[in-house]
């Protein structure tokens, strides 16, 4: 819907949605992703001892979204790796961040004001990927709502959704938690975003794709820049979830502090899963009785 | 082959094979699958703390067969999720079983006589899936016997064959066992069934597909209903296996009690792997010597 | 390039590259692969207790390269299993090695001179697979260098690259190491080989495919036969790596003794990861500071 007074905004949104992400925004995406890989315990040692494995981890961080989307849709997970310039660019970022003499490149990109710019640019790419994922799935399955939402979601979340296996590649194994049990902010935001984009694609949300990309990107930029700058733990979704979840699911969902960092496996290693909510005595007895019955079957 | 006195049976089998599984039989399949998910330790807590992860587990239990078959054949694992009505139905079953006020729905469906009906209906769906899997693989690989058998098998076994990873999604990790090392009854029955359906598809078994579906379904219904009702541990395959395995493999296969429940990962957590059979002194020495040699290589 | 005095060599290479690998060379490949499976701790017990799981492991060892290549390219991982004769041959090899009366077959094939012949024949198949993988990926992605290299690599390395999951199938789980962190000789050689074949395919390496196959196969045969015969640990790549890696990556790569055996998961269980190289005090402080910052985000 374009009202006459919204025309400039509509044009701005259209221009924004048409911005090419390669190479500038993609570079920012790669920088922030590999930065977070470097923060992982043992990542620097791994880059010295097993540089190839380190490079592979970096590629998972940079292109995990394409790999997962390819897997879900039965297409080649490696399809995006046929874009040689992207892979070479990501490789260069990885090399500079891990091996630049005197750590010069790393110091430059992790200088907070610079980093905040890159974080903002990464969110531009994230939202574009969600939109592209939903669009691509819609092309394959015109009425496959769940397929569209799943594709957009993995495009937005990227490597976070395979964090257990990315950690396994580094020789780390933490099965007690995963991104689905304890969602970080980007993963949760990607989930909500993919629902919005799917509703828009199927014409249930009366907004143009360009406008939705623009507004959702602005939302993501504001949240992520604020959270990165202030080291804040607060999730912007918490108020809404604390309203809805007790009604729907009889309890508060796990939207507790400690899960509002970018989608990196290690971020979960410092959070402690909250204590289980008290079950009614009936549920406990029932569960035990049924488990015994099931074992016997 | 239809003899004049088998015509009514042939017509019955044909009508039976043509019964639409959606929505009634599929609903029963979903109910039994999600019931068994609820029995898993920690599943109820997970539904309260991480409802999305709980929903995803339920979807794996309901549609795991389609996901695995898609993975094996290079097709989209999510292809079946484009059937929105199926997914919505499975979601409704999950919600009612986990969140119905006063657990009303759960109490109704787990009332034994009602549950036995659902168990029987689930077997109808299982056998149909095996037949459909073999048929689909035959369409892609006319002479790919092993592909046909593998596809039918994963369609019949479903989530059981990925139990380690379904457990990982719930934050549980038990690598010491899996459905292939210690097969539950439904998985083993699906394996035998897929062999029969492959032989039928390639015209080595002189029986029509409808008749085979009918008879194999009756066999599965009788076994599963009996085992569910009596909490029996006995496998109907044990007599045959105890005859064949010592001849072929020099030892009794692991068909011991405790593995005749439905294909759920947790069912294996209470079974203790049997003590290893005694190896000949020669084999032990040889193994050690060869391992040392291999390490050196 | 064919100089008049190299014509005989060119013809020899062409004839060599045209040699059919099925059934003789494939049989040797299966024999060596299943031999190494038998060396794994617990493999013989598993074959007695869970023969089906043992057979599946053997199929992973024999056809793992095709499964991985299919997964990466979005094709059916099971596609090669439609070649019934291959699967039957591999099954026969597995059965004879594990269940032949008095272990006769095993004793014959593991007699060192005989085994060396099979090891040499296996390398013929390995190099052919690398070439075929690169060729096939080139056909799908004319300029996808990284896709070509990845496909050739997984075709050459085979089951080693999924060693963690092949071990999981046997009920073993060793997440602290994997083939990418600590590459065995065949995996590393396959990696270098796939780079050469990709350069050849894209006309950057001025050599015919037949010549490259011939020379690389000779190199692999000499190395593997020498290493198998002498139980040597020395990697032929170590001199070159010790020259290049400190320059590129600031440290010696993990080319230490103990990693020059064939691609079998168990071979890694006896290697101890080398102690981490000393980090500069600055890097240690920085890492800690950044991890704290990231946790807060």
Automatic annotation (TrEMBL), chains A, B, C:
Q: Which GO terms describe its cellular component?
A: nuclear membrane; sarcoplasmic reticulum membrane
InterPro entries for this protein: TRIC_channel
Cellular compartments annotated = Nucleus membrane; Sarcoplasmic reticulum membrane
Secreted: is it a keyword of this entry? no
Give the reaction(s) catalysed.
K(+)(in) = K(+)(out)
Report the membrane topology from the UniProt record: Multi-pass membrane protein
Any one GO MF term held by the record is: potassium channel activity
Q: Which residues cross the membrane?
A: 12-32, 52-74, 86-106, 210-227
Q: Which residue ranges does the record annotate as region Disordered?
A: 256-297
User: Which keywords are on file for this protein?
Assistant: Ion channel, Ion transport, Membrane, Nucleus, Potassium, Potassium channel, Potassium transport, Sarcoplasmic reticulum, Transmembrane, Transmembrane helix, Transport
The record's principal subcellular location, in a coarse class, is nucleus
- What residue spans carry the Basic and acidic residues bias annotation? 279-288
Database matches in Pfam families:
TRIC
Q: What does this protein do?
A: Intracellular monovalent cation channel required for maintenance of rapid intracellular calcium release. Acts as a potassium counter-ion channel that functions in synchronization with calcium release from intracellular stores. Opened by a change of voltage within the sarcoplasmic reticulum lumen.
Give the PANTHER family listed for this entry: TRIMERIC INTRACELLULAR CATION CHANNEL, TRIMERIC INTRACELLULAR CATION CHANNEL TYPE A
State the family it belongs to: Belongs to the TMEM38 family.
Q: Give the record's subunit note.
A: Homotrimer; conformation seems to be controled by binding to diacylglycerol (DAG).
Provide the protein name.
Answer: Trimeric intracellular cation channel type A
Origin species, per record, is: Mionectes macconnelli (McConnell's flycatcher)
The encoding gene is: Tmem38a
């Amino acid at each position: 819907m374009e009202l006459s007074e919204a025309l400039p905004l509509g044009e701005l949104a259209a221009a924004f949605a048409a911005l090419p992400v390669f190479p500038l925004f993609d570079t920012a995406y790669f920088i922030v992703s590999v930065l977070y890989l470097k923060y992982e315990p043992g990542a620097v040692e791994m880059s010295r001892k097993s540089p190839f494995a380190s490079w592979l981890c970096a590629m998972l961080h940079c292109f995990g979204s394409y790999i997962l989307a390819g897997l879900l849709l039965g297409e080649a997970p490696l399809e995006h790796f046929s874009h040689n310039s992207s892979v070479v660019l990501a490789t260069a970022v990885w090399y500079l961040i891990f091996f630049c003499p005197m750590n010069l490149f790393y110091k430059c990109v992790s200088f907070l004001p610079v980093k905040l710019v890159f974080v903002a640019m990464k969110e531009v790419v994230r939202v574009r990927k969600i939109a592209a994922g939903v669009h691509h799935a819609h092309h394959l399955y015109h009425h496959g709502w769940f397929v569209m939402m799943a594709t957009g979601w993995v495009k937005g979340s990227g490597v976070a959704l395979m964090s257990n296996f990315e950690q396994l590649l580094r020789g780390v194994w933490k099965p007690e938690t995963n991104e689905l049990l304890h969602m970080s902010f980007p993963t949760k935001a990607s989930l909500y975003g993919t629902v919005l984009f799917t509703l828009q694609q199927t014409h249930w949300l009366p907004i143009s794709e360009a406008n939705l990309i623009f507004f959702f990107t602005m939302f993501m930029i504001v949240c992520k820049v604020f959270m990165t700058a202030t080291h804040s733990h607060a999730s912007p979704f918490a108020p809404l979830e604390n309203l809805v979840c007790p009604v729907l699911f009889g309890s508060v969902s796990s939207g507790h502090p400690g899960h509002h960092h970018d989608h990196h496996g290690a971020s979960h290693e410092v959070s402690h899963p909250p204590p289980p909510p008290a079950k009614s005595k009936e549920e406990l007895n029932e569960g035990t009785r049924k488990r015994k019955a099931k074992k016997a079957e």
